[in-house]
From TrEMBL:
It comes from Lysinibacillus agricola. Its cofactor is pyridoxal 5'-phosphate. InterPro entries: Aminotransferase_I/II_large, Class-I_PLP-dep_aminotransf, PyrdxlP-dep_Trfase, PyrdxlP-dep_Trfase_major, PyrdxlP-dep_Trfase_small, Tscrpt_reg_HTH_GntR, WH-like_DNA-bd_sf, WH_DNA-bd_sf. The keyword Transferase applies. This is HTH-type transcriptional regulator NorG. Keywords: Aminotransferase, DNA-binding, Pyridoxal phosphate, Transcription, Transcription regulation, Transferase. It comes from the Bacteria. CDD domains: AAT_like, WHTH_GntR. In the C-terminal section; belongs to the class-I pyridoxal-phosphate-dependent aminotransferase family. PROSITE patterns: HTH_GNTR. Residues 14-82 form the HTH gntR-type domain. GO terms for molecular function: transaminase activity. It holds the Pfam family Aminotran_1_2.
Amino acid sequence: MLDINWRPDRNSPYRLNIQIVNFIKDKIATGEWPVGFKLPSQRTLSEIFCVNRSTVVSALEELAAEGLISGNAGGGTKVINNTWTLMSINHSHNWLPYISSGLHQTNQNIMQQINQAEFQPDIIRMGSCEPSPELIPNKMIQGVLKKLSKSMASLGYEEPKGNIHLRREVCTYLKTIGIEADPSSVLITSGVLQALQLISLGLLHTNSVVYVEKPSYLYSLRTFQSFGMQPSGIKLDEEGIEIKELVDRHRRRKGAMLFTIPTFQNPTGSVMSLERRKTLVDACDRERLPIIEDDVYRELWFDEQPPQPIKAFDNNGLVLYIGGISKNLSPGLRIGWIVGSEKVIERLADIKMQTDYGTSSLSQNVTTELFSSGLYYQHNDIMRKNVKIRRDVALEALKKYFTGIGTWNIPRGGYFIWLKLNEGISMYQLFTKALSRKILVHPGDLYEFHSDQYLRISYSYASLNEIDYGIKTLSELVAEQIF
Ligand SMILES: Cc1ncc(COP(=O)(O)O)c(C=O)c1O
């Protein structure tokens, strides 16, 4: 006899048979009554639920009509299906037409797979662009939270451009990297990604051309494309984006912008030379082509500081400079910033207010304290050392396992090695095979369409042993496809 203590509620607005239907569906959905499970007889169920037999019959008929159970005279009634779509049939509204008509495009299928796989417990993340949990300074943040719990002002909405204390701290920080900015020309955002969204919403229009490095992180996003903007890839050489190609392509096209990641670029890890930065800002000034400079990896340098940001050479307010703390401190705090001419910042702040009414006040307070106490700067030193150790392990593993199969750069900072395979292979096949061996890797075609020869290897998340094992396994899978 089944041990069921539940009874339908006679005071509920739902009819008794519907309550029984839902109760049985729950049992099936949770797997407690798996496919093949034999239900008690109608008489027993009516005794358990304290209802008339006709009520049970009506509930069972409903479940049978939905394809979840089936009964026959001899063998009793059994569960025959437990798929979610059947379980929800007739009860949930069909949202599909709405879902497919929303303005924002869905993520690329492979990106959705990556986002889900990242949270499988035993997965080795060789593609992530986030710091591993042990790189995030939990103790430090806990200490800050403890201190703030005694002194923090109430957590109300913040000013449209963000907490003024944080904006002042950001300006102090910016000075250390060569950017002179006033707090009035700084907007605090919820991560760098939101800064990009605000720019696309507020400053670009459908059909705007956005020049991007080829390859670029931007290709893996749907932010710009969703609003009808056209990415236009410009080649990179050893010093950075090729200016002649950019200028030839641009021809003062109205409404266009350049998006660049000059420092420890995602996905190539490359750094634009100082000379190229200066020439680029001059050329874009002549061409009246605004620049979006994404500098989120800047603080992760290993042996020497990278050249100053392009923004440091911008005398005419041409550059929208974006930075944040997601890569060097904590992505979960969701703190980023945009620096630009005041008019632009006001426009973006206005959109931000209409979008989310400001970035988390708690996160802004924590980040202000991290800056003002000096902990931010101290932590960067520790972070650089630890990320460099990871880079070295990855380079060692590549030497051991990929010699003869591919070539790679030696990053001077950031998270990425752009691995070039000697021959093109099916990237999707590699991705799925690696996933079946619990290795998550980002194929290069996420960052450069139709590319079949590159993998982005990230050493920021996996443990040192995992980095070695992950690269070894990848080399075996690649070799299987090439040879
Ligand atoms: C170049 C670049 N910009 C922005 C982001 C996103 O940063 P955030 O987490 O601050 O939104 C990433 C990380 O994935 C990135 O690689």
